[in-house]
């Protein structure tokens, strides 16, 4: 804000007044209100191996001389963290360790009465009962019985979700990073000699997962069908031979 005012000017030399007059004094006052400071943004990152350890990133947007960047936490005990690690003059991170559920809010404290606060982020990891059991569907390529597509319907995707396919055959292994048609339905392409068993696995963290029923793929059904085809063919050939014998016997009579 720019200001100007009329002031009396007095000039002295060796303590003796030389002249007196009226002048104009101008200046600038930097005045800030809460409306001048943006609302902070909050982003929360959870460590994959430890669900109680999180990084909270606060984007404050602007830093003033009187700024104090803080993180407000509400859980079993309520407290405030100060002196974050700042990547820039406006973006800072807080490292937090505590048992969820816990709520975070980034606070830009300007002075004792003015502050700007982000929306509140409540961190409460989903429990295993909230995640549905995956469904599994298996498709075999018509020309190649060893090549199959396994479709897994997981039903729900969380931040910490890892979609996997467990295989058990001569060697047991797990496939990751499937091709997902949506955030909940994914396909795995598998090539291997049957018999082999598949199971869709929704890995939530290092100790929690949901697994589909196990689908066992082998040749039995196709083997039975081939048996019946051969058996039916043998009966048909036998009937033809018997019919021909009866006809020949009739002609001779």
Features:
253 residues, mainly beta, Immunoglobulin-like, 2 domains, five-stranded antiparallel sheet, 1 helix, 20 strands, 13% helix, rod-shaped
Characterization of the model:
- The protein has one helix at residues 220-252, and strands at 2-13, 16-28, 41-46, 53-59, 68-74, 78-82, 85-86, 91-97, 102-109, 115-117, 121-123, 135-140, 147-153, 162-168, 172-175, 179-180, 185-191, 196-203, 209-211, 215-217.
- It is mainly beta and 253 residues long.
- It folds into 2 domains: 39-123, Immunoglobulins (Immunoglobulin-like, Sandwich); 128-221, Immunoglobulins (Immunoglobulin-like, Sandwich), CATH 2.60.40.
- Strands 5, 6, 9, 10 and 11 form a 5-stranded antiparallel sheet that branches. Strands 14, 15, 18, 19 and 20 form a 5-stranded antiparallel sheet that branches. Strands 3-4-8-7 form a 4-stranded antiparallel sheet, with no helix packed on it.
- The model is unreliable at 221-225 (pLDDT under 50).
Describe the structure in brief:
The chain is mainly beta. The chain has one helix and 20 strands.
Beta-strand proportion:
over 45%
How many domains comprise the coordinates? Answer: 2
Biggest sheet overview: 5 strands, antiparallel
Helix content: 10-25%
How much is the average pLDDT? Answer: 79
Global structural class: mainly beta
CATH superfamily of the largest domain: Immunoglobulins
What is the top-level CATH class of the largest domain?
Mainly Beta
Give, in order, the helices and strands.
EEEEEEEEEEEEEEEEEEEEH
Total beta strands = 20
In DSSP terms, counting alpha (H) and pi (I) runs of 4 or more, how many helices?
1
Q: Could you tell me the CATH topology label of the largest domain.
A: Immunoglobulin-like
Radius of gyration from the CA trace?
A: 39 Å
What is the overall silhouette? rod-shaped
CATH hierarchy: architecture of the largest domain = Sandwich
């Amino acid at each position: 804000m720019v200001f100007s005012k009329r002031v009396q000017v007095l000039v002295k030399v060796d303590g003796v007044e030389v002249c007196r007059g009226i002048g104009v004094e101008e200046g600038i006052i930097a005045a800030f209100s809460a409306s001048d400071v943006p609302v902070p943004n909050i982003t929360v990152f959870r460590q994959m191996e430890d669900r109680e350890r999180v990084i909270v990133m606060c984007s404050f947007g602007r830093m003033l001389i009187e700024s104090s960047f803080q993180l407000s936490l509400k859980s079993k005990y309520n407290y405030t963290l100060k002196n974050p690690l700042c990547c820039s003059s406006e973006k800072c991170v807080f490292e937090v360790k505590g048992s969820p559920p816990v709520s975070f809010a980034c606070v830009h404290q300007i002075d004792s009465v003015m502050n700007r606060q982000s929306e509140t982020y409540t961190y409460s990891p989903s429990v295993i009962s909230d995640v549905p059991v995956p469904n599994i569907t298996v498709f075999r390529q018509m020309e190649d019985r060893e090549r199959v597509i396994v479709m897994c319907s997981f039903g729900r995707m969380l931040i910490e979700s890892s979609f996997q396919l467990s295989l058990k055959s001569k060697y047991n292994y797990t496939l990751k990073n499937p091709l997902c048609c949506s955030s909940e339905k994914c396909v795995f392409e598998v090539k291997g000699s049957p018999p082999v068993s598949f199971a869709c696995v929704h890995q939530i963290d290092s100790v929690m997962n949901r697994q589909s029923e196990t689908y066992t793929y082998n040749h039995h059904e196709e083997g039975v069908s081939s048996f019946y085809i051969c058996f039916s063919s043998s009966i048909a050939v036998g009937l033809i031979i018997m019919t021909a014998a009866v006809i020949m016997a009739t002609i001779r009579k």
